[in-house]
Amino acid sequence: MHSLSSQRGRNLVLVALFSSALLAGCGSSAGGGSSSTLSIDAFTPLSGPEAVFGPESTSGCLTGIEVINAAGGVLGHQFQCVATDSRGDAADAVPAAQQMLATVPNLVGVVGPSTNEAPSTVPIFEKAHIPMIAQTGDPQYDHANLKYFYRSTPADDINGLAMDVWAYKQKGFRRAAAVFGNDVAGQGVVPNLVRGFQQLGGTVVSNQKLALDQNSYRTEVAQLKAAQPDVIFTELDPQTAATFFGELKEINGLVPVVGDGGTIGYPAWVTAVQGAIGADDMSKFYSGVQILNPDSGPGYDAFAKAVVKIKIKEPSQFLHDPYTTTNYDGIVALALAMTASKSTDPTVFNDYFLKIVNGTTGATTVNTYADGVAALNAGKTVHFVGSAGSIHFDQYHNAALPFEVDTVKSDQSLVRQGIVPSADVTALEQ
Amino acid sequence: MSVLISSIGFGLISAAILAIASVGFTMQFGITSILNLAYADVMTAAAFVAYSLNKAGLDIWVCAGAGALFGAVFSMLLNRFVYAQFARRGTSAVGLVIVSIGIGLIIQYVVVIIWSPNFVSYRLSQGSTVQLGSLVFTTLQLTVIGISVVTMIAVHLVLAYTKLGRAMRATAVNASLARDCGIATNRIVDLAWLISGAMCGLAGVIFAMSIISFTPSSEQGFLVVVIAAAVVGGIGKPYGAMLGALVLGLATELAALVINPAYKDVVAFLLLAIVLLIRPRGILSGLATREEVVA
């Protein structure tokens, strides 16, 4: 069970975090970074509507360099984390990326980009041979051939497949309705979701694309009622979701609702919908499918010890954040790739990254950076299993992760209902 | 067929809410020629005033009355101490629009400061279900439709049959001539803003009830539809706004059924464009001139 309340503080600590990140990185990189210091850039939205994603990237970056530096650095080099504000905007991100490449010394990797700025900046980083630990959810990278791009969290449309698996295989629903907004985020999920549910043997009886933030969805609800679904899949913005599900309750009575990470991961969404349908019905009818929030294992324990040491306000809020953990894992794996290749040149160590993360035959499993370095120095090959558990990147450099399914209690804490294994999702992806 | 009939019923509910808001909006423009783009923000503020009272335990309809009262007083003061002052100093119509945008932003931020940007909901019951032929309404929806009908009738009676209504119409047509004829136009303008402000506040509360959970920014988008309804009917004409609300309310619900829910707004504004192409001054423009139903 995880508390959503800790996530509420993210917006509030943004400024403090950004300042801390700058103190940890920018301040020393631009002016006083020594030649032996290697830089990882958290290229992420730190301002604008997407700023909520910034802390997840920078916290993972800071935690990664914390353990690397504590273990003596990489090949004698210390690490620093530099924060660059992409503003979460495709156009604004381009000059920010170019300035970052021109000014950050000894850049060996990027944490980012996120969804909005990825299309305009991934080509820039790829051309510059800078490995990216990306968080973009854009399905266009599901089958992209990029050498330096690594998506460490599943794409948004993969979340849709996990919803299919949960609804069909684990809950036994056979007639589904898809109710998504007519925005890019919502519609990015729908094609795979519909295909996956049908592939499993289910029927999609209604596929509604809603205009957002209308004052009424009663006609749409009436159409949904006529289709008689036994489950509703959804991602809608909080306002739309509150109105739609409030009217669904009023006109038809609720049916089980399965939301994606864009619902359960946002306290505002939970508050709005809970206010509309009531806490009891929220708990009874709604469940959300999101990337598994890690909370145990030797890799996680090492992460948990490190994250509370980083100099940001309320670091404990990132203890169960899947983006923070996967970013941390990505940086540690990059550092191990450097050690394994005996090089800090991205064109050299990049080839070792997948071997470290996916593992090779006979490799020694390690859960911390220090253990990894020790094993490599002993002449062994290593398989790094970090805080998020075993991650496997496919040929397009997309990571498969398990998902968790949660319901929401009246105090907005989450109650885990089950796990959707990554293997089940991957099988449906084929 | 039953979904179609249901959609018409849902369209009536949407039209009822829209009518209260758009008649208030169009009256402000009709009397003082001010396109008050802070209208939605006053609606929001009234909705939050009602929320505080509702949270304190008062019945939602008492709170709606309080929201209307807040809207009335606030709007009257807003006109007297802000818009009228700018107008007296010769600020152009465009300048006044900019002023109203600024006022709207100020109200928005003050609401956020007082009530926070988070989602809130009223404590209210939808009531029991009432079947009227193929139409199914909740008692809450029927109450909303009833309030709207009563409000529209009251507006009609005031404008058509009272001394105040005649004075308002005279002030709207030519304020200086009305003043020369002995009408206390300043008082009439105050009263017009009180009445339209009450409709604004009432619409704010009912709209918030309609969308169920709301924030300080939830009612912003509704302003566009309010203006569209006013323009479809003929801006400045209360009867036109009533008709515009009915047309848009039905059109958006039927568009969701017949075309695609994703294009509700597109259909509504396509309709607006078509009406303005055929009748550039709105549906009731010619009729309004002949019958002097200008408020």
Description:
Chain A has 16 helices and 16 strands. Chain A folds into two domains: 249 residues, 3-Layer(aba) Sandwich (Rossmann fold); 163 residues, Rossmann fold. By secondary structure, chain A is an alpha/beta fold. In chain A, the strands form four sheets. Chain A has a seven-stranded mixed beta sheet with strand order 7-6-8-9-10-15-16, sandwiched between helices. The longest helix of chain A has 28 residues. With 295 residues, chain B is mainly α. In chain B, helix 1 packs parallel to helix 5, helix 5 packs across helix 6 and helix 9 runs parallel beside helix 11. Chain B is globular and about 60 Å long. Chain B starts with a helix and ends with a helix. Chains A and B meet through strand 7, helix 7, helix 8 and helix 10 of A and helix 1, strand 1, helix 8, strand 4 and helix 9 of B.
How far from one another are the termini of chain A? 32 Å
Using the coordinates shown, work out and report the CATH topology of the largest domain in chain A.
Answer: Rossmann fold
Based on secondary structure, the structural category of chain A is: alpha/beta
Total number of helical segments of chain A? 16
Shape of chain A: elongated
Overall shape of chain B: globular
Q: What CATH first level of the largest domain in chain A would be assigned?
A: Alpha Beta
CATH superfamily of the largest domain in chain A: Response regulator
Average of per-residue pLDDT values of chain B = 89
Q: How many strands appear in the DSSP assignment of chain B?
A: 4
**Backbone CA Rg of chain B:** 19 Å
- Domain count of chain A, please report it: 2
Oligomer description: heterodimer
- Main β-sheet of chain B: number of strands, strand sense, barrel status? 2 strands, antiparallel
What is the CATH third-level topology name of chain B? Answer: ABC transporter involved in vitamin B12 uptake, BtuC
Give the low-confidence spans of chain A: 1-34
Number of strands of chain A: 16
Low-confidence stretches of chain B: 288-295
**SSE ordering of chain B:** HHHHEEEHHHHEHHHH
Strand order of the largest sheet of chain A: 7-6-8-9-10-15-16
